Amino acid sequence: MTRKLAPGNLIAATHNSGKVKELKALFEPLGFQVRSAIELDLAEPEETEKTFTGNAALKALAAARTTGEPALSDDSGLEVFALDGQPGIYSARWAGEPRSFENAMKKVQTALVEKNADDYSARFVCALAIGWPDGHTEIFEGEVRGHLEFPARGDKGFGYDPIFVAEGETITFGEMDPDRKHAMSHRADAFVKLKAALEI
Ligand code: ITT
Predict the structure, then answer these.
(1) Which residues line the pocket of ligand 1, CB cutoff 6 A?
(2) Tens of pLDDT along 124-160?
(3) How far is the CA of 113 from the centre of ligand 1 (A)?
(4) Which residue, by CA, sits nearest to atom 2 of ligand 1?
């Protein structure tokens, strides 16, 4: 049975400040006090799973066990159809260390050019997980479909936003007002499912 989640303390189990901002915007209006793994200086677990849902569960449980509070995690990424779903769960890792999404976006473009691809369809995927200190998890997956455009445009958002144009749109997520992105993104899609199932 789905475990419910009452408003209260919630740890955002992520070290990505772009995600922290978006997750706070989603959960704080519902009465949650959200503190991030960055604020709490939590260790970053190694993402050893092969799926978005697996990695989301792993990150939420690590934070919940360390803090003794329910934790929310987000595992997400960009899947490019002509690249057989890459970078996918490796979306952050394509940016190298220290992370450069300018480089990651160039890598995507180079891979498409090398493949002679004429189909630039892509989707963002997001798995949101809630983990409890006793090991229970609830996980929800969302997506937003669209295509890629180069060169990158816009300085709003984060990650691959400057090259992603959602279906029916002409501007990139990087150019879009954050409220509008929040209403249609893969994160919003997963959040709607989470909210309904957990009755928050
Ligand atoms: P945490 O694991 O600490 O949450 P991370 O950045 O390593 O942070 P992921 O492993 O889930 O997170 O990597 C997902 C990457 O996919 C992320 O770094 C972004 O570059 C990209 N991504 C996910 N959602 C995105 C969005 O809404 N807009 C742009 N890029 C996004």
Answers:
(1) 14-16, 19, 47, 59, 74-78, 91-92, 101, 124, 157-161, 173, 185, 187
(2) 999 999 999 999 999 999 999 999 999 999 999 999 9
(3) 24
(4) 14
- Which two structure tokens, joined as six digits, stand for 29? 């209006």
- Taking the centre of ligand 1 as the mean of its atom positions, its distance from the CA of residue 116, in whole angstroms, is 27
Query: Of the given ranges (1-5, 47-51, 101-105), which has the lowest mean pLDDT?
Result: 1-5
CATH for 9-198, among 3.90.950.10, 3.90.850.10, 3.40.50.970, 1.10.3720.10? Answer: 3.90.950.10
Tell me the catalytic residues: 75
Compute, in angstroms, the gap from residue 67 CA to the centroid of ligand 1: 23
**Which of 40, 76, 94, when mutated, tests ligand 1's pocket best, judged by the most ligand atoms within 8 Å of its CB?**
76
CB 126 within 8 A of CB 141: yes
